[in-house]
Amino acid sequence: MKRAAVALILQLRDGELGVLMIRRAEKEGDPWSGQMAFPGGRREPDDENDLETARRETDEEIGLHLGTQEPCIGALSELNAINSRFRGLVISPYVFHLERSVNFHPNHEVAEVVWVPLEFLLDTDNREEMVWERNGMRLRMPCYFYEERRIWGLSLRMLDELMDVVAGKSPERRRWRRF
């Protein structure tokens, strides 16, 4: 199976804990083109492990080096990406706590960097539904619209698990470093 990894980066901003997301650049043939996501990508043969992939891809995509100052505070459940192009792709999400201020330098894969307040994601009144259409099929899917940016799919699944950890609804919280 092919592997990928992403970084969910938390930071206290103006007294509010937020998670860093990116809006992917529009690119023909990219199944996630223009979507809200987390910095990350496919594992390269030189990557020692998935955690190293998340760190390398974050540096490449937004110019943020996640070094010893930003240790990984936890990992979320691996997810399988299923679509016609990436059958059998396993994605490993890692969570980091960023304490320093940084300037981002997005590469060609990233249209913008966005901080989404966890308070917004924890408020169930902000949850909406969308209709996803593909090959004549119509499915109702949960989503958020944060400042006109749609958060759904794999990113939403990762955020839902993160919100369970933050809200103390997950036993995984015991194994995480404090943030």
UniProtKB/TrEMBL annotation:
MF GO annotations: 8-oxo-7,8-dihydrodeoxyguanosine triphosphate pyrophosphatase activity
Region annotated Disordered, chain positions: 30-55
Organism listed in the record: Congregibacter brevis
Keywords per UniProt: Hydrolase
UniProt-listed PROSITE patterns: NUDIX
Pfam families on file: NUDIX
Name of this chain's protein: CoA pyrophosphatase
CDD domains per UniProt: NUDIX_CoAse_Nudt7
Domain Nudix hydrolase residues, every copy: 1-139
